[in-house]
Design brief:
The complex is a heterodimer of chains A (222) and B (391). Chain A is of the alpha/beta class. Helices cover 27% and strands 21% of the residues of chain A. Chain B is globular and about 65 Å long. The chains are: A alpha/beta (222), B alpha+beta (391). At the A-B interface, strand 3 and helix 3 of A face helix 1, helix 2, helix 9, strand 7 and strand 8 of B.
Amino acid sequence: MSSADTTDTTTATATDEAREEIVAILTEELGEAVVGTHIHPGDDLWVRVTRDTWREAGIVARERLGFRAFEFLSAIDWLPSPFGKNEDSPTDAPPEPKTEIVTGYAGGDTRFQVFARVHSHSRKLGLTLKVDIPDDDLSIVTWLPVYAGVNWHEREVLEMFGITFVGHPYLLNLYLPGEFEGHPLRKDFPLLARHVKPWPGIVDVEPMPSDDGAAESEDVAE
Amino acid sequence: MTAISDRTKLAYANAQAADGRVNLEFETDDGMTLNMGPQHPATHGTLRIVVKLDGEQVVSCEPIMGYMHRGYEKLTEVRTYPQVTTLVNRIDWLGSFANEVPFILAAEKLMDIEAPPRAQWIRTILFELSRIANITLFVGDMALHIGAATAAFYAFRDREFVLNQIEAATGGRFHPNFNRIGGIKDDLPKGWIADTKASLDKIRNFCDEMETLVEGNEIFQARTRGIGVIPADVALAYGLTGANLRASGVDWDLRRDNPVGLAWDQVDWKVWTHPDGDSFSRFWVRLQEIREATKIVDQLLDALPPGPIMAKVPRIIKVPEGEAWVATENPLGEMGYYVVSKGDLGPFRVKIRTASFNNIAVVPWVARGVYLPDVVTILASLYFILGDIDR
């Protein structure tokens, strides 16, 4: 297996260079619009662009970098949930609610971020593109001319987060009824089931299999 | 321009209809609107397709989902990591085991632990068994939609042999919930390997039977050859994955190209593609996939490594801060989880990327201009599970 291990390390560094090349090309095409990048060597790549260049970033990724396969588009609400995570025992005092917004890889300045994942079959790696959505104007240009499959994903983000996609010709709720109020995946939208019947907390923890468990049992397949 | 305004009108009608006020304008100036579903047999659950017709030809069609939306992405935010596997089991209920694996791998990636080899191999074996159980049903189901009911009975009969093996190993026929962060719950039971090999033989027989009964059938070919052609570029732009993508000639399989720690790279098997991109090629590719899955399981069973089935993990699992994306090649196509962790007991946000959601998004494109009966065969050949669309 040692030979396999050596090849693994060489490919790891190779793909890492490949990821840096992608960042370089994106920076070359978009200039200062690339506001944040994050590379996990040999694993994954995140790039954050400004809202004005969201579509250009998609076009560059698809046409110049060869990310022709569209995986998904979604959004994230970085606000810590004001209701907590409902995982504590109801008898304990509730923990101090967090209010500070901490964003993830490639940074961020706003509560909402839209992110999309595209994949290149020729490069054999994927790219997560992120963009900040300011609170006072929850809208962004649609990716429909870039990746046709984005249609339903954007409609889902619209109903779940309330982010509008400018230029999308049929922006209607995908799952929810037409007159549904609120945006369920926002952190300040309560999960009512947990308010009606509070979570009992972690009451039973499954015992871990012991180290010699496999050896002592006779029912185990050879 | 007309295409867009047509679609806008239609989408509006859909939204109205989805609200429960089912009063579509059935007769309009330029054709007829026909409502397939939500309980049409071709929709495997409660997908609903509003088709606008000119004579018997489809002008446009629009799938309506949401009858089965269970809000898993929201629910994961109030669950701990081990509890989430119970939820995601129910996404694609015909290949439940395969749903758990990418989520567990994403959590393991964030925690920087790796399951021991034996656990990875057993995961791969059960993964492929659930693929066989899933696609076997597809083969019978596709034939059923063409009008050949016999194949469906054979499919249900032979799938049972595989389900029995999954049940024997995990305790659950449909929802194993067998993966743990760091490994799997139990080792394989005694005598399981021989029984599984016997059931694989039955599945291989089933494939041969289907090849002569369905694939070689003249009516089947007439109904599927050249129908619902999806070119490779359209397939990629819509995010099609799995057999649907490979049937359009794109040689891409995550099991071979990105094995994410499981044991697919340890055995000898082949990724089949088909250049045509029509309904027939999607059927053909899936039938080959069952054969390849039996090969994979056979080889893995022969060389199952000994050793522990759990890595060392803390009793209370806290996942460090970070973001991870892990996707695997599930029976329906690529399924992935984008997990955002804040260092808590449960995830901060999980985006569940399911195969059927993207696969079905291409229906309005591919069904334009086909005849109404072909909509049924196209839907059947794209193969979706409602739970996999609605999550």
